[in-house]
Amino acid sequence: MGSHSAGLEETLGVLPSLLFCKMLRFFKRPLVVTADINLNLVALTGLGLLTRLWQLCYPRAVVFDEVYYGQYISFYMKRMFFLDDSGPPFGHMLLALGGYLGGFDGNFLWNRIGAENSLITQSRLMLLESLLIFFNLLAVLSYLKFFNSQKHSPFSPHWWLWLMLTGVSCSCAIGIKYMGIFTYLLVLSIAAVHAWNLIGDQTLSNICVFGHVIARAVALLVIPAFLYLLFFYVHLMLLYRSGPHDQIMSSAFQASLEGGLARITQGQPLEVAFGSQVTLRNVFGKPLPCWLHSHKNTYPMIYENGRGSSHQQQVTCYPFKDINNWWIIKDPGRHQLVVNNPPRPVRHGDIIQLVHGMTTRLLNTHDVAAPLSPHSQEVSCYIDYNISMPAQNLWKLDIVNRESSQDTWKTILSEVRFVHVNTSAVLKLSGAHLPDWGFRQLEVVGEKSRGPHESMAWNVEEHRYGTSQEQKERELELHSPTQVDISKNLSFMARFSEVQWKMLTLKNEDSEHKYSSTPLEWVTLDTNIAYWLHPRTSAQIHLLGNIVIWVSASLATVAYTLLFFWYLLRRRRSICDLPEDAWSHWVLAGALGTGGWALNYLPFFLMERTLFLYHYLPALTFQILLLPIVLQHVSDHLCRSQLQRNVFSALVVAWYSSACHVSNMLRPLTYGDTSLSPGELQALRWKDSWDILIRKY
Amino acid sequence: MLYASGRFLAARAATTLHAPPRARGPALRGKRRELQIPGHLETPSYDSLTGLRTRSSAPPARRVVLRKGRMPPAIGSSHAGSELRLRRGRCAPQASRAGGRDKVPQVAARSLKRPAWSSWRFETAGWWATLAVVTLLSFATRFHRLDQPAHICWDETHFGKMGSYYINRTFFFDVHPPLGKMLIGLAGYLTGYDGTFLFQKPGDSYEHHNYMGMRGFCAFLGSWLIPFAYLTVLDLSKSFPAALLTAALLTFDTGCLTLSQYILLDPILMFFIMAAMLSMVKYNSCANRPFSAPWWFWLSLTGINLAGALGVKFVGLFIILQVGLNTISDLWYLFGDLSLSLVTVGKHLTARILCLIVLPLVLYMTIFAVHVMILNKSGPGDGFFSSAFQARLSGNSLHNASVPEHLAYGSVITVKNLRMAIGYLHSHRHLYPEGIGALQQQVTTYLHKDYNNLWIIKKHNSNTDPLDPSFPVEFVRHGDIIRLEHKETTRNLHSHYHEAPLTRKHLQVTGYGINGTGDSNDFWRIEVVNRKFGNRIKVLRSRIRFIHLVTGCVLGSSGKILPKWGWEQLEVTCTPYLKETANSIWNIEEHINPKLPNISLDVLQPSFSEILLESHMVMIWGNNGLKPKDNEFTSKPWHWPINYQGLHFSGANDTDFRVYLLGNPVVWWLNLVSIALYLLSGSTIAIALQRGVQLPAELEGLTRVLLRGGGQLLLGWMLHYFPFFLMGRILYFHHYFPAMLFSTMLTGVLWDTLLRLCAWGLASSPLGSRIHVMGILSLLLATAYSFYLFHPLAYGMIGPLAQEPESPMAGLRWLESWDF
């Protein structure tokens, strides 16, 4: 079923090789295959399609990360909201579109893993990398096209087309994975350098230069930003139902989704009044989203480490909906727990008391060390033991996101802090889990403010006006669902910024993975990823590069760098080895190839997340781009005699055929179509660090 | 473990995890004089144009040739020049101005807006007098009420304590390199502090202990920042008002003042950073006299100060980077100067390598050598270091111990994890609780020395006693299959396909069997990291791994603390991921084998380079460990330039003596505005020049100062600020202060230049002649007045908090986030 959307992926996966070829045309005539360029292009496209589409329907099981992406697509089909921190939604949507066109109805459960080869492997399977690489290359290609037309026909339709396409494909690349931003930066910086030279061109009029700069700014800055927003707009428009990641989002966001929280909060009164019954959700919600909670159990008299407590009723934060999460807002000056008619709304700066609904005890804090955070104050529901420990249960309401100092406290929308009147401590979620006596719920403390933090902010989630004066009635009332009306929808920008923020800050558990690797291992291909193993035979699919190509691409980068600096230094001493034209091509090619590689590779050294070999593939494509350029350069400029040139061509052919040979040898691991014997597999394990699965019989 | 990490978090630091120092030197300008003679009177517009584009200032005659040979304006030259363009430096302005002192009046006379320093002598006298006033004022503000408060303030508790450690010669561990603390210790020692004060926590009174020596030393270094900034700006802009403005902004900044008055690393760090910047600027202006005595002096002084900065905190790397970029662009310029022979260029290169790479490196290593030489007694830092390292420290149980060198079958050993603060492989007579893996004996790691840490190493296939004198000694070799028997309980180290108690993806490790008889799950292959098969295994020095034979997993400790049932010791697992991490590498520490001769551990003492490497590994690991907690408020880099929130140095309540580290908001917000203005005016001028606009001769000098001098300062600010955005460690407000120094210098240069530009623009109106003087004077007065308002922040305040109307600071809480 999944193979339909994989089909789309395939087609896109083929395109890189096509783009590749086109791009090379800018630098040189193809060197190895000396056929006509157009013929060459067709042949390469055909070859690309063939290698990528070969036995596409196989295997018919879920492979590796397809688990996740497949799941996400199902969510699109069912319009359920989800949140993925790996990247913006465009890629997912594209896959979903493929699935949709192919008739995939979203009811397949993606939770069973069936148990230059790397680019083939990657683009055959339904993962995002090939899409990313496609748009990366498209961006670079269209920029080159644009740059070429700049010389003779600026502002022609052709010129506009390629310029716009650059911007669009950059934003698509970013829209697929945040990694795309590296290619965007590459294109931007090259464009900036070109624009700077344009400014220095005194043959152009000021108006003309201004036009050029504005056109570039619009195409490369405004359009990508706009498209990026558009992706999210479509994403949020498609996903209007509540889904599995609701809990991570704020109450306001959840309330804007169909089903889920909205079902409960729909029709709640907006303004919190004295006598309101509310549940209070912590805005920060880490490590878990939770609600302010209390229950009959008290703090243990003496903790395990010998410290004492107040032995009053526990106050915690509880990650599940519960009857004990209900609190009543009380005016300290009055005794009633019901809402007046008309209701008296609570405003910023009002002094309030919080009454726990089920136990009618008052929220209290005092100068006693909290159980797990001894530097903060313990928060309890006050029990009078008559031991000269007075009640300190007055709290000042501080609305964090108020618009004026007279603002009223609003359900869902207001983020409030409770500042303790006696000690000026603030009610806060400390993030620690209480031990068994606290049922592993989260600790709530009073902290003397060191600075504003979201873990101190709370918002009302469920809300109703209390009407029962008697405790028994009130308990019944607490059990009954909320009623009344008013619903609030968030604006798109508010929803977008929340989703964006959560995506950027969502921390994944630092999960160790069997096939995770470090950036240093990528260059030398010391690692691989086993994607799939046939349930019975030893047929398997690995992400494994063609080692000949990897090594020669790296060598080409080194050779380029050395040659570049050699030429550069000599030019500085006014010795020009290359004609101007060749030199500027050489520099542009290097800026794209080496620059693209470095930008897509080096940042990984700074990242602390779990990394995989496939993260290197975009960088690799740029590196491979450099390979023919260097070969061509060596043949054109460094081989001085015809003999040398012929020898060099022969070497290139030898190299090329060895690459083909290696590719062929690794074919079983790329396509997973043949089952090899343990001996054959052992023979394919060229590096000790490669993890090839060998069955023990 | 808990205790250790607590102590750790307390240690604050400001550093980076960047690669080790890659010293690049600053550089100089080549044979300037030869070029100058025909060149320095060339028309300014011509010079600026070409100078900006190609950075070449060869004489005009050669220019034509050069232009022909110039690279096309396409990517090539722009690429090559991009980093240069960042700080397209000082060559021309300094060349034309600093070319000789006697030329200055001439220039001044031509540029109508410069104050007319009529004679050379008057100028010199004025020069010294201003410098003296600036220095005196700086010292006066820094030493005023230095003894207040007479209790520990903020991080004095760490750095004062570490100074005491040097005086007492006890070994400790800190995430910063040692120079700063060594100097503090030295200052204390020289002024009669005996190292007996405990420095337990902020707020503790010093009583009779002499703390003034250490505070005085920090204040002394902190006071020099202002003269240094003054001289740097003077050299970059050649303008007294700019330098004066900078000096005033820094003198009257409450933040700089506060930070300079206590026993902290920051005044020392900033001293070296500013000194390095000043020497770099100075040797840049000596560029027309290469290889002269002052040239050598400033060049080597730059190197020395770089070593100093790096020796105090790793933040010193940023100034090294700045000097390095300056040097590269210098060399690039010299290399392109075809009038210089390659030999001369080679000489320039060598001089810089010597002074800016070799010299700092030697000094930096000397600092460490002195550090390890002084600290020769066992102390609180022992546990962070490897067994071999600890053997150096007198008082440590490994000191002067003698053990058999090579591991043999039958030896009784303790096995220590290579990662810091994990401890020894341990087992005890308690089983894993029901429901957590197999019901077998627990295996953990434990930080303290204990009988339960002892294991006997045995052959996997025989249970005979290898210590029987009738058997010959058989050494354990790399790759051998062995069994580890727990000495106290006679159970074997064992692993199997059950998930580990906390790390679910790993396998459980247990003690299994009785009297050494178990099953094949007790077999482990012992491997030495990076060794060949058959090598013997050395006590302490060999780094070994234990690979479980049946499952192929590796013995390691996850570093997670087990619950109550595991006595809060650390979890030991067998990890199926074969990556080499310190968690899964071990070494043999104690070793008892009566059949082998004991040799003194002194033989095993690590070499200096190993000590150096290990110290750095531990420091980097320590820095990585300083992670902010999720649910705590932490200072973010974007808070800093806007002076969002300060730090409590002393006291928080209305009855306390309060000192609050907060920048003078007038100075800081002026700095913020200045950066924006600078970017605006700088890019406008750069674009105008690129478009080939011909500036009037008067403006030439001003734009050059703005672009080149200002550019260097802007680069300094960026280098000392932006890297913090990438750091994962916990950050504090005071990390911004080195960047703030650069930003203040930029402010001085910018306002002076802008006011001169205004004066030039308004030259016809009567306002024009006075606007520059008035502008500078009003800025000076505004700064001084704001200092008068905010000085209690630094000198201390008592009484109600600022939000109360009766507070002396009432009305000054301009941001709600300030809590003083």
UniProtKB/TrEMBL annotation, chain A:
Pfam family, any one: MIR
Catalytic activity of the protein: a di-trans,poly-cis-dolichyl beta-D-mannosyl phosphate + L-threonyl-[protein] = 3-O-(alpha-D-mannosyl)-L-threonyl-[protein] + a di-trans,poly-cis-dolichyl phosphate + H(+); a di-trans,poly-cis-dolichyl beta-D-mannosyl phosphate + L-seryl-[protein] = 3-O-(alpha-D-mannosyl)-L-seryl-[protein] + a di-trans,poly-cis-dolichyl phosphate + H(+)
Subcellular location: Endoplasmic reticulum membrane
Coiled coil: none
MF annotations from Gene Ontology: dolichyl-phosphate-mannose-protein mannosyltransferase activity
Main location: endoplasmic reticulum
Keywords: Endoplasmic reticulum, Glycosyltransferase, Membrane, Repeat, Transferase, Transmembrane, Transmembrane helix
SUPFAM superfamilies hit by this protein: MIR domain
Pathway of action: Protein modification; protein glycosylation
Bilayer-spanning residue ranges: 31-50, 90-113, 125-147, 159-176, 181-199, 219-240, 543-566, 586-606, 613-631
Keyword Ion transport: no
PROSITE patterns: MIR (PS50919)
Top EC category: transferase
One cellular-component annotation, GO: endoplasmic reticulum membrane
CDD domains registered for this protein in UniProt: beta-trefoil_MIR_POMT1 (cd23281)
EC number in record: 2.4.1.109
Membrane topology classification: Multi-pass membrane protein
Every MIR domain range: 269-332, 343-400, 404-463
Record carries keyword Heme: no
Family listed: Belongs to the glycosyltransferase 39 family.
Job of this protein: Transfers mannosyl residues to the hydroxyl group of serine or threonine residues. Coexpression of both POMT1 and POMT2 is necessary for enzyme activity, expression of either POMT1 or POMT2 alone is insufficient. Essentially dedicated to O-mannosylation of alpha-DAG1 and few other proteins but not of cadherins and protocaherins.
Designated name of the protein: Dolichyl-phosphate-mannose--protein mannosyltransferase
TrEMBL record, chain B:
InterPro entries given in the database record: ArnT-like_N, MIR_dom_sf, MIR_motif, PMT-like, PMT_4TMC
Domain of life: Eukaryota
Membrane topology: Multi-pass membrane protein
Coiled coil start-end: none
Alphabetized GO MF terms: dolichyl-phosphate-mannose-protein mannosyltransferase activity
Gene3D superfamilies: 2.80.10.50
Keywords: Endoplasmic reticulum, Glycosyltransferase, Membrane, Repeat, Transferase, Transmembrane, Transmembrane helix
Pathway(s) where this gene product acts: Protein modification; protein glycosylation
Family: Belongs to the glycosyltransferase 39 family.
Main function: Transfers mannosyl residues to the hydroxyl group of serine or threonine residues. Coexpression of both POMT1 and POMT2 is necessary for enzyme activity, expression of either POMT1 or POMT2 alone is insufficient. Essentially dedicated to O-mannosylation of alpha-DAG1 and few other proteins but not of cadherins and protocaherins.
Protein name per Swiss-Prot or TrEMBL: Dolichyl-phosphate-mannose--protein mannosyltransferase
